[in-house]
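Minutes, project check-in

Agenda point 3 was the complex the collaborators sent over. CS summarized: two entities, 1037 residues total, and the question is how they sit relative to each other. Sequences were read into the notes so everyone works from the same version.
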Amino acid sequence: MKYEAPSTIDDAIALLADAQAAASVLSGGTDLLVRMRADMAAPGAIVDIKRIPALNEITETADGWRIGAAVPSAVMSEHDGLARDWPGVVEAAALIGSTQVQGRATLAGNLCNASPAADSVPAMVAASAKVEIAGPGGTRTVPVEEIPTGPGKTSLAAGEFVTAILLPKRAALSGDAYLRFIPRTEMDIAVAGCGIALSLDDTGTCQSARVALGAVGPTVILAADAASALIGTKLDDAALEALAAACSAAATPIDDKRGTAAYRKHVIGVLAKRAAKIAYARAGETA
Amino acid sequence: MALDKNAPETRSFKVVGSRPLRPDGIDKVTGRARFGADMSAPGMLIGHILRSPHAHARIRAIDTSKAEALAGVKAVVTRADFAAAPEGMEDVLDNCMAGEKALYDGHAVAAIAATSAAIARQAAKLIEVDYEVLPHVTDVDAAMAPGAPALHDGRSDETVPDGYSANVMSRVEYGHGDIEAGLAKADRVLERSYKTAATHQGYIEPHACLATMGPDGQADLWCCTQGHYMVRNTCAALLGMDQGQLRVTASEIGGGFGGKTTVFIEPVALALARKAGRPVKIVMDRTEVLRATGPTASSSIDVRIGMTKDGRITAADAELRYQGGAYPGSPVGMGSMSAFAPYDLENVRTIGYDVVTNRPKQAAYRAPGAPMAAFAVESAIDELAKGFGLDPLDVRLKNAAREGTRSSYGPTFPAIGLEATLRAAKDHPHWSAPLGPNQGRGVACGFWFNFGGDTCVTLNVTPDGTVTVTEGNPDIGGSRASMSMMAAEELGIPYEKVRTVIADTGALGQNEVTDGSRVTFAVGLATIEAARAAKREMCARVAKIWGIDEEAVIWEDGAAKPAGPNAGDYPPMTLAEIAAIASNTGGPIAGHHEVNAEGAGVSFATHIADTEVDPDTGATRIVRYTVIQDAGKAVHPAYVEGQFQGGAVQGIGWALNEEYIYGADGILQNPGFLDYRIPVASDLPMIDTVILEIPNPGHPYGVRGVGETSIVPPLAAVANSVSAATGVRMTDLPMSPPKVLAAVQGQQEG
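CS then shared the predicted structure for the full assembly.
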């Protein structure tokens, strides 16, 4: 097995596009190295993207935020501007693994590992995040929810890799939140997770909302009916019950060692209600 | 030794009861400590074990030729490389390397030694095993039913009545009195069934060893174990060696909790080393630890208890069914003996069934068999007390075993501490603290026998007057500190002048493994006796110097002094002064003691647990937890508190989330710490501890073992607390969130 650490995006593309090499992208390595140790992955080459300078930066742009694909979640947590604008996304990234793991783990890695239970993905989807992809055919930008296509599978073509996560500008009177359920308090994986971003008008009525569900289907679910349940309301009890019901209805979970389908369908609604209240409070704070 | 021989001393202690720094602390926090995997040898090979992917399969043939032909492979072994095991050790060998059948997912079927781990893994994929897959069973009740897939034929003993499958290995019964007559006097008879899942000890350090064997048959083994003398004796038997030809050295140990009281990889590493002619190291990964070492039994228990409306138990009856994996030996006997041990009962009976299933062979886990039994009994008593509107502590006090009580398992108790723990619980501020919304409080008692056993200690005095205590029990709970403290106390010298080392098997006679909470008691007793022998020798040397009778010299405050008619005739001679001239008075000074220690006092505890249950998710949070336990005499109170807390935390994990989850295919679904959920630090409040000291008459300082009792009450204490918080009686562990939510929702619908 070869280890490569290119210093430019073009060099990385060339290494990844070489079909003979059977290369895997290494960013934080918190999934890849574990899979290799467990004999579940045996790449012919590892392409470490951490030496590419632009991939290690968080920058505020005219359109919002650009988070390089090699930025670890601990760095996001310590970035005041990002944490102020997208607290739900930053908090979701800060739930991954342990404190030590968060020193390595990245949003891009969490997304491209394509686990249905990835914590940062529902938060990013709710936040309308996009990914910047580099590849042999040039650069393209797609919504986060278009990346995972099934457990362990992505829509990335051969030679392509994610170079950055793009978050929009935070609008006035808007806020986001992410909550997950785990049997413990940390060092665990989501049984169900819910990201919500919403914006209000100046009367406190919800104008727009995005509700994304994790670990209750093979890929992240953007639940349109759940968002509709919030829009036009001030998140009164009836709206929250409608939200919970819509989330439960949208969820297509399985029975497994981490929980039953029935349990996940129930808990996703509970999480949605709680996350919506937090996002609503955060939206109000920006008034 | 008779119990009255060691009347506990009433004197005040100088060193015992203080809290000196632990001697292994710096090494462990700086990484200097050498654990099992830290040992290496020149020319060393890496061993790897091929394991069964089936829960139950006949092994028709194993073809290792392709693996042997791979460059870098130096030896491959299968069961054919082991001679027939001596009588009584067949199951140990079969568990280390499968013979005719693979009996569980993860069962070892072959092993490779190669020049690298990668080559060894590659070679494992080249071994062709011809399996005939057989029907399997993993649930204890299903395994007992007639017609269940049988693991072994014809091994049930004569105690098993008709009507059970061949998986029921034996039946035990304990008790006295007349159950039916007792139940007839009750105002209420509660009948309830309870289940607990199999749980793993969860030690941080996976099993690891390094084996060497020369062509002359002399062998050395370094390993992570709770008992290297046991490892020596077992491996020598399985490899057909003289025990004296195998020297075993125990590494520093990253936890054991009973799980390292047997062998798994050690005989395999020796067999590979013998065949390859080179040192072989084997290190398990976490998946192997969970699939193929020894968790404890899962259980299914029926309880019947009769109680009068004022809280007196009139009769208590339980049937306990434990599956202990693929071979006989579940701890159902100790579960049956301990179930009702805290109570003074006129009519009591326990019946236990030992059952085999297609799971890894169970190993000891902290108070083996007792936590499950206590879960059932303490839950039933709680439910009866609540039903009558009685305080659960008052009910237990009313029925508590005391000095002179004939125990449910036979012996009559000497001075014991149960009542003291109950009274301390009532007086503790925790018991009367207010509870918040969705919170509940539970209480439960626990009992453990404790143990003594074969023990050797040698205490050497160095020429500069320091002391080395040499003992043969791996330190899993602070025993090096405790031994140094007891030696210092007895000799009258500072703790800093004593160092305790764990010797290899060549240095001492036979030592029982570190189990049964025996070490502070038994090794402590031998250490005190070894120190007393050294003191006698030093007094004799001084008598010679002074020219007076040996009887006229006494030992006081770390020095020999003239006594009786000679009192004051000579200035005292300190240990250091005597040691400095030892060469001129007869040679080096040492004391030693060898004993099969008896008189380990039983131990009792009472735990109080507060939990808060989220009614929308079923998640349980431990809000407050208090452990009250009798330690006899706490030699190093910080370690005692650590034992109390550690047992409580393991019990909390068992109660809430830990479980072996098997799929319909009999394959373990959660062989890793992600989905086998032991509590993490942030899951827990600080566990409060109260040490009581009711001296054990069997030990010179009154010491009782403290390591195991603390895991006995938590299952029931937490279940009683969750039941109080939710209003639903929880009888099936673990109380994972889906199970609790279903119970809460079921109650709302009902």
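Noted in discussion: Residues 519-546 of chain B form the longest helix (28 residues).
Follow-up: revisit at the next meeting once the mutant set is ready.
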